[in-house]
Known about the structure:
The protein is mainly α. It contains two helices and no strands. The protein is flat, with a radius of gyration of 13 Å.
Amino acid sequence: MPALALISAVFVVGFEQIVQWKYGATGIVGLLMLSIGLKAKSPAVSSAGAVLLAVLLAGPVL
């Protein structure tokens, strides 16, 4: 069980670093809002984070 927790923590930290490297601080804020909204079961906060990430991803296309 501790190995699974360690692997998941490494994956989350790595994913956050990739998002920050590619999308900057705005990407981290969107990811943070999405994760906080999901944990708090707040659809408004999680939706705002998801929309922010979607705008960042679709920005070059638009």
